[in-house]
Amino acid sequence: MDHVHDHAAMASTTSSVMNHDHHMMEQMSDTNSMSTGHGLHNMKDMMMMAMTFHGGYTEQILFDQWNTKTVGSFVGSWFAVFLVAVLYEGLKSVRDSLARRELCETCSPSQNRTQTMGRLFSMAHIVQTLLHILQMTLSYGLMLVAMTFNTYLFFAVVLGAGMGHFLFGWRRSSAIDYNDHCH
């Protein structure tokens, strides 16, 4: 692929769109799309995400439909993220409690712990697997919210996780959580 362009001319042009990858800076057409040498892309899809912490209430959170354009919608979103972080910590405690109960049942003298296939397909293991999938989904979702780099949303995740740990963490059998994925 031949990429011939004049970097001096590009630097002096103020209406060009520039990315650190110089392949993105080619030409603008009248239809508000950009030719990148890799096909045409709509300018709406070319928005750059802030990679430093910032404030403000106008934010797109996780999905195209979850846009906060007013202070009220942002505050509601903040509390939703906070609540999800609290519930995430609660879910970890529920999983720990179920695992302790299942461990006590399988270690009883009446059961043989070597029944691997039976344990693999047991209802307790299936429930733990489904809860683990839910925990991972919430964990990575919270990580992506924090990665919006919106300071307020970042603190919604951190403070929600802290509140959840305060409310539920004392019930866990260990302070070390080997099931944490993102924090």
From TrEMBL:
Location relative to the cell: Membrane
- Name the InterPro entries on file: Cop_transporter
GO CC terms: membrane
| Entry keyword Membrane | yes
Topology of this chain in the membrane: Multi-pass membrane protein
Q: Which domain of life is it from?
A: Eukaryota
Keyword tags: Copper, Copper transport, Ion transport, Membrane, Transmembrane, Transmembrane helix, Transport
Which Pfam families does the UniProt entry name for this protein?
A: Ctr (PF04145)
Segments crossing the lipid bilayer: 71-91, 120-143, 149-168
Q: Which family does it belong to?
A: Belongs to the copper transporter (Ctr) (TC 1.A.56) family. SLC31A subfamily.
Query: How is this protein named in the record?
Result: Copper transport protein
Look up and give the organism this protein is from.
Adineta ricciae
